[in-house]
Structures are given as C-alpha cells and as structure tokens.
Write a structure and sequence with these properties.
With 401 residues, the chain is mainly β. The termini are far apart. The chain has a domain of 151 residues. Helix content is 9%, strand content 40%. This is Rhamnogalacturonase A/B/Epimerase-like pectate lyase domain-containing protein.
Length: 401
Amino acid sequence: MTETRIAVGDRTALWLIGVATTFGMLVGALLLGDARPAAAATYEVECPSTSPDHTDYLAAEFGKAKRGDEVVVKGTCVTRKTLWLKDGVTYRGDGRDGAVLKQADGAKLAALVATDSWALTGEAGKSGTNANVTVRSLTIDANAAGNAGAATIGLVVRAWDSRVYDVAVYRAGGDGIRVTTVTSDGTVLANGSGVDEPHTMVNSIIADSYVEESGRDGISVEDPGNGATDWIVERNWIAGSARHGIGSDNAAGWQIRNNHVYGVGENAIDLRRCYNTGVHDNYIEDFGGNGGAERFGIRCDLQGDVPSTIAGNKINQFRGGGHPMKAGTYFAIGLDGVNYGKGYATVTGNAIVGTAGTVGTETGLAYRGGADLTVVSTGNLVTGCDTALSKDTGVVVTSGI
C-alpha cells in the first residue's frame, strides 16, 4: 500500500483537506437526499363495537404496514377474510382482553390469521417464507361455533426467526397454531436430499400463550420435508384439543418445555423425528380422552445417531370433571421406535401417576426399537400404572454414569 505523508509543519494543508471533505459530504447529502431508512410507523387499528364487520378496514390497515412497522389492534375486530402478516412487522394488542381478532359467523376461512407466504403457489411456494414476524398480546377467536364444519386454523406461521408471545387462540375448528412448511395450495418448501437450493424456517419461538378448544391440535407442526427445525415452545397452556396438545411431524432441534397440557383427545405431546430434541418440565393432565388405540402423554420416535432428552415432566391421569377416561391403552412416556441408525435418549426425573387401573391399561415408560435403541432411564417415579416399564427385546436400558 502506498502511503502519502504531509509534513507535520504543514498544518494549513491538513486544515484545507478537512474543510474540503466536510463541504463535499454536505453537498452530496443535498444533491442525493438523506439515504437513511425512513422511521418505522405505527398503525393503530381500532375496531368500533358499533360495526358488526370490519373486514375491509382490517385488510386496508394491515396492508399498509412495511418492514419495521407495528400494527396495534384495539377492540374486537371481526373479519370475513384471512388477515395476512408481513415480513418484519410486529402485530400486537394492548392486552389479550382488549385486542381480539375474530372470525365472522359463516366466514369458514381456511385460516383466520396467517403469514403471507402461506398464500404462495407453485415455484414461489418452494422457496418463499416469511421472516422476523412478531405476534403478541392479543386474542385470536376462530369462532368454531359460528362456522360449523370449518377446520379453520387460528394462526398459521410459515416463517423463520419469528415470535409468538402472550397470544390467546380460542375455538379453532382446526389447529390452534400451525407451523408449516406447506402453503395453502399444498406446495412444500424445498428442502432435503436432492434439492439444489434448500430452504428452511428455523429459530423461532412460541411462548406464554393460551390455546384452548382446538378441533385438531393445539400447536401443530406440519413438515413433510426437513425445513421446520430448531424452534422453542415454552410456557404455554393448551387445553381441550380434539387430537394432540402439541403435535409435530418434525421435532428435530425443537425444545418443548414448561408447557401445561390438559384434557386432550389423543396424545398430549406427540413428536415425530426427534433429533437433539428436548422435552423438559412439562405438566400433563388427562390425555387420551378419546380412548381406543394407543395414547401417549409424551410420544417420541427417534432419528439415529444423536441424543434426545425427556426430563422433569409431570404426567397425571386424574380423569375428573370434564375429562372422563374411556377404555384404551395408555403410555405416559413412550420412545416409539428408531427411524434409522442407532437411537439414543435419556428419560430422567419424570413423575407419573396413573388411575390405578380404573379404566384401560396403563404403562408408565415404554421403550421400543430393539437393539437400535439405548436409553438412560433413571430417577423416574411411576405409580398407579399396570406396568411401570415395558421395553422391546434388545433395547439397552442403563442408569447412565
């Protein structure tokens, strides 16, 4: 590098260079304009109670927001059309009681609220997802009673690096919250083997939310490929789901912790493809209310060659009040096979209380997978079950080190 020096004594030259540089910057700013990004805007969406339908108003106001903006919902807003969420926008209320997005009677929407990449079709749907979307401090009322037969999803999240905080989702005919790599027309995000340019939707959080009376899963993950990994689902309350409390096609990298799941029809936490998955400190009360086939408090089938951990969960079958128990086969915690390679898991420090054989057949811990499965299983409390531990021939069960 060539270095040009100015004599220390020539301070006048240095001063002139400084003045010229400053003047040039000022002239450039005047000629070119201020290149800084515009300040973020806040759009207040206030729905008057005197109007029974706010569809057009909501579409217009939600449509104004751009990356970095905030949409603030006030009042009960009734819509006959899906509300679309954009990249980089925060959608919030002043609190769940004061901000309600409600599906109008008879609208029968596929989804009440959704990130706008869910509407992509064809090739665009294979590569396009949303990013940095935040939904917080509001209520989503899918109004199943006013939309009989419609499997409306309360909130669809097809996005990465996004957040759902302090949100209540009530009365969805379908899933309460669905995380999906699939668009509304069935296009799957391109990912996995044989894909030249893989796309993912990772690193997001669903937390501190209520999901009640869902017609399918409370929180659902739809991922036929391998695109929706490495999320956190924590500190949520999920009750009255017709199928699973939390159900996932792909639990790779997911951390499911400190959730409360009550009175679900099938499995409380149902996880496929567990791969470095953590299921910790959840409280489960009354699962498998539909009876029939095998039902699980926590179910996890394992991918090979990496570990998953199940620890500190509390699982009770009280079956009182509105959660009657039907005849069936119940497993509090089940490792339900290994999909390839060698499966590894720790199952430690869980507390399980069954019904003491009053209805159906109950097993505390079930380990399936033959010689391909190794489990460290220690410090678990199991009581009130017909069988404390069942395991396939060949499964290796140790107390660890």
